[in-house]
Structure formats: C-alpha cells, structure tokens
Amino acid sequence: MTPVLLFASPEALSLEESLVRALNTSLEPLEVRQFEDGGVRVRPLSPGRDADAFILQSLLGADRLSVHDRLFRLAFLIAALRDHGAARITAVTP
C-alpha cells in the first residue's frame, strides 16, 4: 500500500484543523524559513519516497503574503517533494 502524506502550509491553518479531524490523520512536519533578503525555503521534514503527497495551500492574498508569494511557496514544496521521490503530488488550493 502506498503511504499517504498530508502537508499544510502555515497560511492554511484554519483549513487544516477541520481537514485533519475529518480524515482522522495528522500533518507531516514542514520547514518554512524566511530569509532577510526576501528569499524563502520550504521543505518537507518527512521522507516522501514513493508516497502520495497532498499539499493544502491557501492562495488567498493577505497583508503578509501575496498570491504570488503563496504560489511560489507551493511550487517550492512541490519541487522538494519531487526531489524526495514522491510518487504523486496533489495540491489542494482552496
């Protein structure tokens, strides 16, 4: 059976709680680091080899992060999961 991993960005906190309860699962750890020069590092802290990875990412722009910033964080996480060998990656972007 293929393992299933669920990741949620810090911007999706209001959505993740209800989803975790409904699916009776837990979120995988995720590192999000903002650098002084504006760069960002997003990476999963769980091994994702041969897993089905689901990413919950809200794209609603706000004062702190624009839609552009949120899309790039999503793209960075997708690339990191692909590099870690995830079998399939699904982005859930309400």
Strand order within the widest sheet? 1-4-5
Encode the helix/strand succession as letters.
EHEEEHE
**How large is the radius of gyration?**
13 Å
Q: Are there runs of 5+ residues with pLDDT below 50, and where?
A: none
Distance between the termini: 28 Å
What portion of residues is helical? 25-40%
What's the structural blueprint in terms of helices and strands?
Blueprint: E1 4-8, H1 13-23, E2 30-34, E3 40-44, E4 52-56, H2 67-83, E5 88-92
Please tell me about this protein's structure.
By secondary structure, the chain is α/β, with parallel strands linked by helices. It contains 2 helices and 5 strands. It has helices at 13-23, 67-83, and strands at 4-8, 30-34, 40-44, 52-56, 88-92. The strands form 2 sheets. It has a 3-stranded parallel sheet, with helices on both faces. A hairpin with a 5-residue loop joins strand 2 and strand 3. The protein starts with a strand and ends with a strand. The model has no long low-confidence stretch (mean pLDDT 85).
Structural key phrases:
about 90 residues, alpha/beta, three-stranded parallel sheet, about 25% strand
Explain briefly what this protein structure is.
This protein is an alpha/beta fold and 94 residues long. It is 30% helix and 27% strand. A hairpin with a 5-residue loop joins strand 2 (30-34) and strand 3 (40-44).
